[in-house]
Amino acid sequence: MCGIVGYVGKKQVADILMDGLKRLEYRGYDSAGIAVVENGVMNVRRSLGKIRLLEELLIKKPIKGDFGVGHTRWATHGKPSEENAHPHRDCTGKLVVVHNGIIENYLELKQELTAKGHKFQTETDTEIIAHLIESNLTNSLEQAVFKSLPRLKGAYAIALISTEEPQRIIAARFGPPLIIGVGNGENFVASDIPAILHYTKNMIFLADGEIAIVDQSSVVVKDVRGKKLKKEVMPIAWDPIMAEKGGYKHFMLKEIHEQPRAMRDTIYGRISLDSGAVFLNDIRITEKEFKSFKKINIIACGTSLHAGLVGKFLIEELARIPVEVDYGSEFRYRDPIITRDILHVVISQSGETADTLAALREAKQKKSKSIAICNVVGSMLTREATGTIYTHAGPEIGVASTKAFISQIAAQYLLALYLGKVRGHLTEKDVRAHGKQLMRIPAKMEELLRREGEIEELAKRFYTSKDFLFLGRGINYPIALEGALKLKEISYIHAEGYPAGEMKHGPIALIDENFPVVAVAVKDRVYEKILSNIEEVKARSGIVIALTNGESSELEKRADHIIQIPETLDLLNPLLLIIPLQLLAYYIALKLGCDVDQPRNLAKSVTVE
Ligand code: M6R
């Protein structure tokens, strides 16, 4: 949902801004721009389309300077166009702003400022910020910012510069993420860590309502009342190479291949195969409290929600607590019943998804304890939840979530084992047995990834299909949902995930000889049932691609194509089943010539409602 970057220091600012924007492009990619100050003159370059078009413009019309800001856009107010691309200027052109989020009262402010004589050039909500600050500019830029921000309603992160205050960026966070990179004689502002990780590993995470005054050799953070805050500079353990493509054609493919590593990093050190202990260091909820919970609400969006649906099966089976799973975007609008004996588990790769955050706040307001399962250290979700289980997937850049998904399932497996043990449903021996199987998963994932070619061949066979149905039952029903989501978001092919037993209540009407059905048919307690569902598809001449494990003669009689996955515990199957489905979506999208890492209309972090 838009990416912001800013630099103040001695290096060529345009190069650093462009480098940062390329690494933030996953956040939005309909237009981009940078503003750089050189010898007191503000130079702005903007372009419709992807960052490379801005890059081409800069080759033709270069700009130099030593402080500036940049932006990559995902349109909310105003169509994607060069005019609507950020940075946006005030009337004088001396002050520019870049913005991520939405200013809800912009029309009202626009009318007010227009009446005062301000001239607007764009359809965006962002432009009013520049004019509002201009209208309050009597003394310093900082004072004008502090006077202006209380007038803005909505969720936003901004960074602004002025020719009148050289070597200074003012940045503010009221919702979407914003971090400050602390360097040596240089400082950075960015929406996300990978944008500046090549230059510094020391970051300050701004919290909601914080304003940073970033100069070349100092960073001062204040609250809205102007009170100076003591902020911790946090060292980031991620290696910058982790945020590169590493020889793969796309981030998505690289991230699919990183899943064995992501899985190892998420589970290793958290479960002892000797003592059967589970270590969840940051949960900040006592064993006594864990024993008292009567129910768990899992809340998330998109792929993270699908991981949560798998988590429901894990927790209910291993800890015997009822679990309800809800969309972040629905939860707070249905006046949910929240009591102190309900634990809320919020799942998010980014930790910044607006709907998930709002749901967490609803639970918090009603005094319920919460655990964030999150991939980004210091993100909003981890700050606001009672405790956190970090997934150690590493930076996920591809818009289609892959390695975050398996890490979220792994983290919930650990939570389920921990809960099961604390609540007396599992013995140490049980935990050790589960732990052993869990530890074997990364090697089994590697085995599957070595057979990538098989899936590529299937993709060649099916990439012209117009619709797909994905079927699963029980714990593998969420895998059907996730397989369908992966396919539709990156290939734009219509796909639906369905509980296999429900097919006869409607979707069966779609089936004909051109309709591929991907059926998860592993040897678990519902294997026989899914075999019958496959029969139902075949009886209507549908094409069946079945995923199974172990001996498959029964299935061979029915399915057109079989993908074998290594055998493991029933509860662990989702971690393996999703890999061929991610690869199928990837290779189909590749064959169709789609932009795999940056699919149309999407953004990596959805920081608006
Ligand atoms: O950062 P989050 O996990 O909270 O993001 C949630 C969804 O926006 C995300 O999973 C989205 O559905 C992905 N594009 C799926 O691949």
How do the helices and strands line up, and which of them pair or pack?
Elements: E1 3-8, H1 13-24, E2 31-38, E3 41-48, H2 51-60, E4 67-73, E5 88-89, E6 95-103, H3 106-115, H4 127-135, H5 141-148, E7 154-162, E8 168-174, E9 179-182, E10 187-190, E11 202-205, E12 210-215, E13 219-223, E14 228-229, E15 234-235, H6 251-257, H7 259-267, H8 287-292, E16 295-300, H9 302-319, E17 323-327, H10 328-331, E18 342-348, H11 354-365, E19 370-374, H12 380-384, E20 387-390, H13 403-422, H14 428-449, H15 452-462, E21 467-472, H16 477-491, E22 494-499, E23 516-520, H17 527-538, E24 543-548, H18 553-556, E25 561-564, H19 573-591
Parallel strand pairs: 16-17, 16-18, 18-19, 19-20, 21-22, 21-23, 23-24, 24-25
Antiparallel strand pairs: 1-4, 1-10, 2-3, 2-4, 5-6, 6-7, 7-8, 8-12, 9-10, 9-11, 11-15, 12-13, 13-14
The structure holds 5-amino-5-deoxy-1-O-phosphono-D-mannitol.
Residues 301-304, 348-350, 353, 356, 399-401, 489, 602, 605-606 line the site of 5-amino-5-deoxy-1-O-phosphono-D-mannitol.
Describe the structure.
- There is one protein chain.
- The longest helix has 22 residues.
- The chain is an alpha/beta fold and 609 residues long.
- It has 19 helices and 25 strands.
- Helix 4 packs across helix 5, helix 7 packs antiparallel against helix 14 and helix 14 packs parallel to helix 19.
- The protein starts with a strand and ends in an 18-residue tail after the last helix.
- Strand 7 and strand 8 form a beta hairpin.
- The strands form four sheets. An eight-stranded antiparallel beta sheet has the order 3-2-4-1-10-9-11-15, covered by helices on one side.
- Helices cover 35% and strands 22% of the residues.
- The structure holds 5-amino-5-deoxy-1-O-phosphono-D-mannitol (M6R).
- 5-amino-5-deoxy-1-O-phosphono-D-mannitol binds next to helix 9.
